[in-house]
């Protein structure tokens, strides 16, 4: 992978000139957004004076104003977001490797996401963007941002039905060809039970999770403290999760400091990396002429791309 020094040279020689013109556009957008906020704030303030009953105000006036704000904000910023992704994110991806392609408005399909069997609940709402795909060395890969959610409904004391949205997964979802052939299914998940309940009760709760096959105990105690492994073939799971691969997965988890889920199915590796933020969107109220911001986007992209090197996927066990 490229070094930070190479990224800085690329920033100075290629990115900076375009960022200067994009920065002027950002400032104009910020002025429009500030004006929009002031006008909506005055509108809400005026309505608050006219409507003395707070709940009535929120229902009749507050919600339409918020909806109007969302529509106008999206309209004001849409062109800038598109320019930012073309001039910044696309070029950083090409800087990482010219064999990578980028479709900012696409994402991994819900069908593919569900085929990983990492998250078993069918989403009621599924969104995503920033699809990156291509080939690094011998490894075909694809990743994108994903946000999957399910909904629940409850009834308030006054009989009103309320809908609540709950996140199943939000973050980067990565798929690549794996460097070993296998027939079964193997899952590597965060060991939440052992952290919460300790070794004895944790092992008991782990053994009850039959939906992903048998609980498979690995011989690496450091790996076992962080991850739990399930599969339908004990021998094959240990063949896939060699000592070196377990160390690489553990090192990658410690390096990223993120919650990580993996599955090995159909000669592919699926990796879900949890994030709370939207990764590749422009920060409207921050200057673009800050190399540290470019570095942050670069490092977020590397979180996914570096899986190929970190897990040694280009080393082919079979040929």
Notes on the protein architecture:
With about 325 residues, the chain is of the alpha+beta class. The chain has nine helices and nine strands. The protein has helices at about 5-50, 55-95, 110-115, 190-210, 220-225, 235-240, 245-255, 290-305, 305-310; strands at about 100-105, 125-135, 140-155, 160-175, 185-190, 215, 225-230, 260-265, 270-275. It has a nine-stranded antiparallel sheet, sandwiched between helices. Strand 3 and strand 4 form a beta hairpin. Helix 1 packs antiparallel against helix 2 (about 55-95) and helix 1 packs across helix 8 (about 290-305). The longest helix has about 45 residues, at about 5-50. It is flat. The model is unreliable at about 195-210 (pLDDT under 50).
Strand order of the largest sheet: 1-2-3-4-9-8-5-7-6
Separation of the first and last Cα atoms:
25 Å
Largest sheet: 9 strands, antiparallel
Structural class: alpha+beta
Percent helix: 40-55%
Estimate the global geometry from the Cα principal axes: flat
* Pattern of helices and strands: HHEHEEEEHEHEHHEEHH
Which radius of gyration do the C-alpha atoms yield?
A: 24 Å
User: Strand-residue fraction?
Assistant: 15-25%
Report the count of strand segments. 9
User: What is the helix tally?
Assistant: 9
Question: Could you list the spans in which at least 5 consecutive residues all have pLDDT below 50?
Answer: 193-208
Mean pLDDT: 85
């Amino acid at each position: 992978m490229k070094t930070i020094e190479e990224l800085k040279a690329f920033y100075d020689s290629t990115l900076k000139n375009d960022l200067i013109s994009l920065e002027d556009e950002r400032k104009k957008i910020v002025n429009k957004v500030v004006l929009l906020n002031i006008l909506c704030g005055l509108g809400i303030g005026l309505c608050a004076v006219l409507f003395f009953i707070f709940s009535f105000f929120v229902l009749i006036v507050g919600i339409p104003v918020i909806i109007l704000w969302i529509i106008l904000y999206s309209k004001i910023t849409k062109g800038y977001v598109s320019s930012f992704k073309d001039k910044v994110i696309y070029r950083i991806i090409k800087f990482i490797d010219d064999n990578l392609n980028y479709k900012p408005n696409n994402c991994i399909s819900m069908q593919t996401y569900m085929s990983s069997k990492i998250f078993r609940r069918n989403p009621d709402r599924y969104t995503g963007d920033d699809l990156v795909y291509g080939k690094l060395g011998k490894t075909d890969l694809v990743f994108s941002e994903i946000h999957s959610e399910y909904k629940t409904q409850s009834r308030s004391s006054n009989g009103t039905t309320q809908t609540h949205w709950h996140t199943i997964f939000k973050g980067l979802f990565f798929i690549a060809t794996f460097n070993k052939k296998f027939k079964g299914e193997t899952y590597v998940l965060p060991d939440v039970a052992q952290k919460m309940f300790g070794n004895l009760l944790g092992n008991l709760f782990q053994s009850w999770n039959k939906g992903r096959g048998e609980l498979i105990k690995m011989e690496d105690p450091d790996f076992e403290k962080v991850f739990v492994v399930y599969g339908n073939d004990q021998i094959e799971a240990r063949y896939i999760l060699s000592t070196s691969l377990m160390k690489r997965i553990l090192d990658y988890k410690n390096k990223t400091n993120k919650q990580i889920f993996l599955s090995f199915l159909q000669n592919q590796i699926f990796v879900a990396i949890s994030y709370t933020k939207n990764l590749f969107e422009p920060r409207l109220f921050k200057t673009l002429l800050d190399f540290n911001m470019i570095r942050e986007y670069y490092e977020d992209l590397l979180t996914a791309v570096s899986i190929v090197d970190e897990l040694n996927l280009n080393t082919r066990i079979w040929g």
